[in-house]
Design a protein that fits this description.
The protein has 4 helices and 5 strands, in the order βαααββαββ. The protein is α+β, with helices and mostly antiparallel strands. The chain has one domain: Alpha-Beta Complex (Ribosomal Protein L22, Chain A), CATH 3.90.470.20. The strands form 2 sheets. Strands 1-5-4 form a 3-stranded antiparallel β-sheet. It starts with a strand and ends with a strand. The mean pLDDT is 97.
Length: 116
């Protein structure tokens, strides 16, 4: 059963400019494993973090580092949630996450489904 759906879009150039302007921002938004990727990949991951929050009902107190996008050896993305995000997901009965990332024409998009 679908418990929540979230989608978000991010302007790649805008995120890249923000990260260049404020270098410490990367550590506040992305886990160590996510950092160092190209701008389009970071934008998709930021969109995924926002989509996770939406799928959980946008509860107060979520941090961007609590949702991490990981990829398997074939590049297929998956979500790993910790902290408040994991607590809320548990309370809602989330058993599995589905995620899709894409980028084109200067925009990155992420779609997240919380399944129970």
């Amino acid at each position: 059963m679908i418990l929540g759906i979230g989608v978000d879009v991010v302007d790649i150039a805008r995120l890249a400019a923000a990260l260049e302007r404020t270098p410490a921002l990367a550590a506040r938004l992305f886990t160590e494993q996510e950092r160092g990727r190209p701008a389009h990949s970071l934008a998709a991951r930021f969109a995924a973090k926002e989509a996770v929050a939406k799928a959980l009902g946008a509860p107060k107190g979520l941090g961007h580092l609590e949702a991490e996008v990981r990829c398997d050896e074939n590049g297929r993305p998956s979500l790993h949630v910790t902290g408040k995000a994991a607590e809320v997901a548990y309370e809602l009965g989330v058993k599995r996450w589905h995620i899709s990332l894409s980028h084109d024409a200067g925009v990155a998009v992420a779609y997240v489904i919380a399944e129970g």
